[in-house]
Design goal:
Blueprint (H helix, E strand, L loop, with lengths): L2 H8 L9 H5 L6 H9 L3 H11 L3 H7 L4 H4 L11 H12 L15 E5 L3 H12 L3 E6 L18 H13 L2 E5 L8 H7 L2 E4 L22 E3 L2 H4 L4 H20 L39 H8 L9 H5 L1 H6 L3 H13 L8 H6 L5 H5 L6 H14 L5 H15 L5 E3 L9 E4 L2 H6 L1 H14 L4 E5 L4 H5 L3 H17 L4 E4 L2 H10 L5 E3 H8 L12 E4 L9 H13 L3 E3 L17 H4 L1 H12 L6 E3 L2 H9 L4 E3 H5 L4 H6 L5 H20 L14 E2 L2 H10 L3 H14 L2 E4 L4 E8 L2 E10 L2 E11 L6
Parallel strand pairs: 1-2, 1-4, 2-3, 4-5, 7-8, 7-9, 9-10, 11-12, 11-13, 13-14, 15-19
Antiparallel strand pairs: 6-8, 16-17, 17-18, 18-19
Helix pairs in contact: 1-16, 3-4, 3-13, 4-7, 5-7, 7-13, 8-12, 16-19, 26-27
Length: 757
Amino acid sequence: MDLEKLLAKRELCINDNPPSCVATCPIHLDVKGFMREVQNGNFEKAYDILEKRMPMAKIIARVCDHPCEGACIRKDNGGSISISEMEKAIVEYGFHKKKKDFPIPPNNKKVAIIGGGISGLSCVLDLEKKGYSVSIYEKENRLGGRLNKLVGDKLPEKVLMEEIENIKKAKIKMKMEVEILEDDIEKLQDEYEAIYIGTGQWGKELNIDKLTLATELNGVFAGGRIANKNDSIIYSVSTGKIAANSIDRYVQKTSLTAYREKESSYETELKIDTSDLTEESRIIPASNVYSKEEAIEEAKRCLLCECAKCYKACPHLRYENLMPKEYIRKIHHNERVILGDRYANTTINSCMLCGLCKSVCPTDLDMAEIIRDTRKSMVEREKMPPSAHDFALKDMEFNRSEYFHLLKAQPGMKQSKFLLFPGCQLCSSYPEYVDKSYAYLMKVLEGGVGLYLNCCGAPGEWAGRGDLFQASVDKIHSDWQSMGNPVIILACSTCYYMFENYIPDIEIISLWEIFNEKGLPLNASNGKGKSLVVHDSCTARDYSHIYDNIRNIATNLGYELIEPKYTKKETQCCGYGGLSYFANREFSSFATDERVQEKNEDYLAYCAMCRDLFVSRGKNTIHILDLIFGGDMEEQGTKKGPTLSERRNNRLKFKISILDKYWGEKLNLKEEYADVDLIIDEHIKKLMEDRLILEADIKKVIGYGEENQNIFYNTENNHYLAFRRILNVTYWVEYIKVGDSYKIITIYSHRMDVQGE
């Protein structure tokens, strides 16, 4: 897999970008972090978060001018979160004695700070933490600068004095009542490695670099109101911290500019959808400071801004508890470090490839594309476990074989203008409806309608088997040409997706479009106002004409349609897509359950697999063809879908019956050992479903074993054990003989390649 492409895709994920309040804050306080703690009543933890970025937190929290509030996305929905009041509450209720810091070894580098006000002290505290020997030059007899003028209700003098005393206890040289003028700078340059000018004013206009705060003077930096040209307290704090970083880089002789673009305020790339945001008025404190209860309530107004739209929408991401960047990192590790050996195989093969992530992502990050490429890479490097997709690929080959493949022009014609391609799953679940649809099409369309039974190749594409998929595409294309390039009518949205994206020169049309335009059969069901939750197939998300026609058909028949949360272009997968049903049955059931539990009403689907999976999880679901051909809604809504064995048998039976009905051809086609008679109890049938074992597989094992005496006999219980390896799967069947039949006791298989010398 292309590493550069993978890493470029990773950068499209914006969820780790900070909220607007954090990005706007010039010192980038973790507002989201301390809001979350206050929501939970953890004021001490909130204080720890606040203090990590805010120097002199007990002071600055009380006097900060809070530009962050102007960036809050709630400002038009009840008012911005009162971050200013929140910080006051945090220092009021959350302050606690700090744990002792580990002493930092001094680095013997001397730095002079001119001005003991907000900016200068912020710079001092950061440099002191880095081990610098710092000297403060202050012209007044006390530290604090204009903080001393703010003493009052907002800033109690006691709080100011306590913080100043804490600073004085640090290993900082205090040079009080010493005024440094412009002419003194040269002398200080000889004594100190660097100098910071943090006074409120300076006689000479300095050329200050906006990024680094470096001046034209060697080793001299300047900030505070000299740089800001305003009275913002928090920006003065910011300049002190930026200058401390610059001084450290300067002394250490590293780049002053590298990776500093977002050190002060900037515009975040995080995008938050506020369309569904309800208005909630901000909490007004009853006194000078929020009570704990008031603070908690105000904190709960905070949305804890994050994108996470894909995570919230996609069952796969939530099941794996992975955000895209972390997921891509996992894929990279799988691809580049451990080279695909088991680490993330199940995760990668569980993705439904439905494309919902891209549909909801503000930057169009397509995880499905990444997963597709990864699966192809795993196959190419022979790191794809056979067990993940073996069953689906064998089923695909069955659909392409003589047992299902059929290509016919309309009876009585050599060529037809149209060709119905119903797909393999519809023929598995609703062969009778395929028959009725074919008869309908021959009646309403001029120019003839042929019938084409085949698989579109989706399992090969989903499994990363480019060879099998391309062979399928090539076969479809040659079959189509042999029929005179007819318009292909597609009933399955997955087939529609595959044709449009991989065989674009074939003209296609949706079956639902024809039903909508040509009119419905007279026996179509009348809903009489019955409500149905319409579930869109995930492969139809980019085809509005498909899901719009489905809705037109249902509403014209008198049904009231309910839209789930994720619908149309943003529909959720049923749990089958991407072969997740075969690779991770547990997750597939999780995704199905989540979808069907969203609404209480009966569901309407137009994909056979969606309908069958929903019913298997206890949700009454009808297929659009039930409405069109007037099926019994109560019966059809609860009717269980066919087993895996029945699905295969239905396809073969359909081919045999349709050939006889329309073309008068008798077909005597059987799989190997098809005449072996089995007795299978219900619990064994469930095992077969869980272990992806077909009746045909069991017949081949027993038939071959009995014929070649490739069996074991247990004299204690009179059980027989037969085994057979079919391609890369070894099947084991334990059974007893009941007359000419075989009663199955248990079954299991090994889907693996065993390699050795």
